[in-house]
Known about the structure:
single chain; mainly beta; Acetoacetate decarboxylase-like; 4 helices
Amino acid sequence: MPFTSRGPHPVTPDAPVDIPRPLLTQQWLDLTFVHWAVDPAAVARVLPAGTVPDVFDGMSFVGLVAFRMHRVGWLRLPGVPYLGTFPETNVRLYSVDAHGRRGVVFRSLDAARLVPVLLGRFGFGLPYMWSRMAVRTGKDTVRYESVRRWPGPRGARSRIVVRPGERVAEPTGLEHFLTARWGMHTAFFGAAAYLPNAHPRWPLHKAELVACEEDLVTAAGLPAPVGEPVSVLYSPGVPVRFGRPVRPAGVPTP
């Protein structure tokens, strides 16, 4: 792929651009990031055209990210309390395109509300799945549960329990790489596109993985995770703004 001479853009803890007129607004709350290292060659085949795996120290990563979506809103309208508020669990990969834009690629997005699932699938071409889900906070743990309903494979599930710990004063290079992603690579109306986002700097906490039973990664067509995760993080959350999709040439869509 013809990368720019400068290569991938630097990883920055703060959004590189503001989005004053967002296409979507939402909050991500009670997030847990679980990541395993993966050979870049093992995931390159499933990335969108025009992108390759983004790597850190020669490795790429598969992420299982569970959280509560809160008050999704269109344009600058207020977020929707019920339809825009639901648990979600994503399987994601890390990508970079010919313009050096680093992003994520979603292999699956399990969500507990059918209407947002339909909008995500047919409006944005994202692999949203309708699932029975719950997020429960205890005295010192957060539990995420998901069982897929539609479109399948039916019964694909995850159960994640974490114990959040101390605040991360200064994230490592890997922690920035895995969390400071300012866009997604996807297909928009049949063409490859980049959807930018912006939010405040992540408040991150170390987290102990108490339990992780899942088959969402293999259901997403990826190799089963091998060994212990290389990173487990928790965040209370951030407000997020998404901009308009950008074509591969860098031109916004109409």
